[in-house]
Amino acid sequence: MTGGDRPHGPPRRFAVLVSGTGSNLQALLDRAATGVLAPAEIVAVASNRPEAAALDRARAAGVPAIALDHRSFPSREAFEDALLAALAPHAPDAIVLAGFMRVLTPRFLGAFPDRVINTHPSLLPAFAGAGAIEQALAYGVTITGCTVHFVDAGVDQGPIIAQRAVPIAPGDDATIVRARIQAAEHALVPAVVRALAQGRISCEGRRVVVVPGGDPDDADQLL
Ligand code: GAR
Fold first, then answer.
1. Is the pLDDT of residue 118 over 50?
2. pLDDT at 4
3. Is residue 206 within 8 Å of residue 152, measured between CB atoms?
4. What is the whole-number distance in angstroms between the Cα of residue 212 and the centre of ligand 1?
5. Who lines ligand 1 at CB under 6 A?
6. Which segments of 108-152 are extended strands (E)?
7. What does the pLDDT average to over 181-209?
8. Pairing of the two strands 201-204 and 65-67
9. pLDDT at position 13
């Protein structure tokens, strides 16, 4: 069992997987520090890139930071086994992919059934996969956004939990659009994590139901 002593209730102990800058991780850590994320807590951060700045953000927040270079493992499965083993002492019961640039196999996903979420920088199912912002600009859409979704065996195909739209104006480049999308993600990802921990999100097939939180004093209360 990976979920500590709460196998049947909502997840509370979230591990965050990262590969890069970690601005979404920071949004989670900041809210955890001020109590806004409760009852969710961030129990560990792991990266497949040891040099990822996101790991420094975790260390600065006093959260265990795990570096596992996927290139030093002979196979995807061996990497995932090592990742599961490294996470186990922290007893996470859910996983947030926040800029984690490795596809996870059913081997890893099976350890956290329906409890792995991802944030993707497009309005899925448009522009799945790598380079979503560049894809959107090349296609010429005038609205894009971000999607927080459950992760299944397909790439960026799992049930959608929440989305936010972001405009693209003539002349906008990828840097501008990325900043706009990330500002939306920084509010939406923590809101989803908290709603999950509060047991307000359920999933039947592809249909995700979110029970509104209804806290009028909370600017982050997007869900
Ligand atoms: C985020 O914008 C996230 O949507 C994207 O990586 C960024 C990570 O930024 N994820 C993907 O593209 C996954 N396909 P961050 O490291 O600053 O949080």
1. yes
2. 46
3. no
4. 26
5. 18, 20-24, 54, 98-99, 119-121, 132, 182, 185
6. 116-120, 143-150
7. 96
8. unpaired
9. 98
Q: Cα separation of 57 and 19, whole Å?
A: 12
Instruction: State the pLDDT confidence band at 5, using cuts at 50, 70 and 90.
Output: very low
Domains and CATH numbers, the chain: 11-113 (3.40.50.170), 119-223 (3.40.50.170)
Select from 54, 8, 12, 51 the least CA-distant residue to 29: 54
The single-letter DSSP state of residue 105 is: P
Mean pLDDT of 28-44: 97
Q: Is the pTM of this model over 0.90?
A: yes
DSSP strand pairing (201-204 vs 207-210): antiparallel
The ligand 1 atom nearest the CA atom of 19? 16
179 CA to middle of ligand 1, Å?
11
CA 209 to each of CA 54, 123, 137, 181, 203: distance values in angstroms, whole numbers, following the listed order = 31, 18, 31, 23, 6
**CA terminus-to-terminus distance, the chain:** 29
What pLDDT is recorded for position 218? 58
Question: What is the DSSP annotation of 56-102?
Answer: HHHHHTT--EEE--GGGSSSHHHHHHHHHHHHGGG--SEEEESS--S
C-beta of residue 146 within 8 angstroms of C-beta of residue 120? yes
34 vs 78: CA distance, rounded Å? 37
pLDDT more than 70, % of the chain: 93
